[in-house]
Design brief:
With 515 residues, the protein is mainly alpha-helical. It contains 19 helices and four strands. The chain has helices at residues 2-14, 25-38, 54-65, 70-115, 121-139, 146-158, 166-179, 185-212, 216-234, 246-264, 271-292, 306-325, 330-347, 350-364, 375-383, 398-403, 414-417, 426-438, 467-481, and strands spanning 390-392, 443-447, 482-488, 493-498. A four-stranded mixed β-sheet has the order 1-2-4-3. Strand 3 (482-488) and strand 4 (493-498) form a beta hairpin. The longest helix is centred in the first third of the chain and has 46 residues, at 70-115. The protein is globular. The N and C termini lie far apart (53 Å). The model is unreliable at 502-515 (pLDDT under 50).
Length: 515
């Protein structure tokens, strides 16, 4: 089980290792905030972003493990994903046997391998979801104290991203449905209270810590107030689907219909399978709703469906194959498992040679670099000093982190913080401009023809009239004090450098947008 899990995760993590792939936009923000934590900064109070706090501290832990290198974060995710597959394998094995666990995990691997981008909140939530399901299915039915642990790991998922609340809601609802007619109401209430105790413990630690460090209002504002405003701004009607891979949706829909039939005709011989069926019936619609609620449907949102998919395919294999044989033959399952695992290994054998090449680089060719550094990041490193500040207009993070240059303001992600109707305030805009006046960045990097760029006149955009009162002061400041230094055409980036003469003054407009 352990070797099989390591094997699956090795393939998943291969193409996103730092030698092959630099951090994407979201990962770059998390890495930058994690690096700031190691410098003594506090997320939200000192750096603006809108994910839950746990992701930044996981990145800080990974950077500490890697002595500042992204390899530490990669290794941390590798270990957590491996543990998650071991745990979910055990869950499916508990009700379906070896072959069902193999089929379920391979199905999960197949889709997860296409979804994982590296260092995203949903990828870390995979372990907390698998742990919660494992405890509910395999442990909590024997000792109620395990509901405290379910609450604990559920809170960890919530503190990565609030939309990760799907599995604890599903577990509590399914527990109520399965046991409402079989146990005393007082016992069910006690389980709910134990779950809440575990959940509350983690959240109270966060509240106390940020409150003691004068950052709690910023946490609430960025994680909750912003995300509600963001959802309203981008809201659309419909159910999120993964258009690049319709097979994913067909498997989920088809499997869900089979589960419904299993419930209607009671195709499960024991209470444990009844818990699985009830959990899936409740859980899958919840995850679909949570994926759809933002109106965006980004690819990585669907990672939260993968644990459902693993249980679903494992149960269907158990239902169709084992029932067709009219028995549960562990010896036959074991033979099938090793035969299929061997075939799977042969088909994916080339990954071993790639890891040998990576190891060779890390051990013997470190002088050539152990991380892929994109063009813009190299340019910034070569054309600024370590103490210079760099502003990446729109959404910084990856460039600031990979170039090892700090941003001049807490508003690392201006497109979200300063251009969201119903959220952005005049105080925030003036604070951003004040930061630039106090500590002007040496370089400003923008996407070519960015509709919000301070170096372009106001144009019609998806932000509509909201853009107009915002850009006046931005444009006045930047155009007065910066000149274009380079046009990195291959990556559609423009680089502007601070003028050598003293900064020109700029007015503070009174018609800023307010919440």
């Amino acid at each position: 089980m352990v070797v099989f899990s390591v094997f699956l995760v090795s393939i998943i993590m291969l193409d996103i290792n730092p030698l092959y792939a630099p951090p994407n936009t979201d990962s770059g923000v998390f890495l930058y905030v994690g690096s700031q934590i190691l410098k003594g900064k506090l997320p939200y109070r000192d750096v603006w972003d809108h994910k839950g706090p746990l992701i930044y501290y996981l990145d800080a832990l990974g950077l500490w493990m890697g002595h500042g290198s992204v390899w530490g974060v990669w290794l941390l995710e590798f270990m957590l994903l491996t543990f998650a597959f071991i745990v979910i394998f055990e869950v499916v094995y508990s009700f379906g046997g070896m072959l069902a666990a193999f089929v379920g995990c391979v199905a999960g691997y197949y889709f997860l391998n296409m979804l994982v981008q590296g260092n995203l909140t949903e990828e870390y939530n995979f372990i907390f979801t698998c742990l919660a399901v494992f405890i509910y299915i395999c442990k909590a039915k024997d000792k109620e104290i395990w509901y405290v642990v379910i609450g604990f790991v559920s809170a960890c998922g919530f503190l990565l991203r609030p939309n990760n609340i799907g599995v604890p809601v599903a577990i509590m609802l399914s527990m109520l449905i399965v046991e409402i007619h079989e146990v005393e109401v007082a016992l069910i209430k006690r389980r709910f209270l134990l779950f809440l105790a575990g959940f509350a413990f983690v959240t109270l630690v966060v509240i106390i810590y940020w409150g003691a460090n004068s950052g709690l209002p910023d946490l609430i504002d960025q994680v909750f107030v912003f995300n509600f405003a963001y959802s309203r701004f981008h809201r659309s009607v419909g159910i999120a689907v993964w258009p690049e891979n319709p097979l994913f949706s067909w498997v989920m829909v088809g499997g869900y219909l089979i589960i419904i039939l299993a419930a209607l005709f009671k195709w499960f011989p024991d209470k444990n399978e009844k818990r699985i069926v009830t959990l899936l019936i409740v859980w899958i619609p919840i995850e679909i709703a949570l994926t759809s609620i933002s109106g965006r449907g980004f690819q990585h949102y669907f990672i939260n469906w993968i644990p459902c998919l693993i249980l679903l395919t494992g149960f269907i294999q158990r239902l169709l194959i084992s029932r067709a044989l009219m028995r549960k033959d562990e010896t036959l399952d074991l033979v099938f498992f090793f035969e299929l695992a061997l075939c799977f290994l042969v088909l994916n054998f080339n990954f071993i040679s790639q890891y040998l090449n990576i190891a060779n680089t890390l051990i013997f060719r470190r002088a050539n670099g152990v991380e892929k550094i994109p063009l813009v990041d190299r340019y910034v490193r070569e054309n600024t000093r370590i103490e210079d500040k760099v502003l990446v207009w729109g959404h910084g993070g990856s460039i600031n982190f990979m170039s090892q240059r700090d941003a001049p303001t807490k508003y690392l992600y201006q497109t979200a913080a300063l251009f969201t109707p119903g959220y952005t305030t005049q105080q925030m805009v003036e604070g951003f401009l004040s930061d630039l006046r106090k500590d002007p960045p040496e370089l400003v990097i923008v996407f070519e023809n960015d509709q919000t760029s301070p170096f372009l006149p106001v144009i019609s955009s998806t932000y509509g009239d909201y853009l107009y009162p915002m850009k006046g002061d931005f444009s006045e400041f930047f155009q007065a004090n910066y000149h274009m230094e380079a046009h990195l055409q291959s990556v559609s980036r423009e680089v502007y450098r601070l003028n050598s003469f003293s900064l020109n003054s700029f007015s503070s407009s009174s018609d800023m947008i307010t919440r």
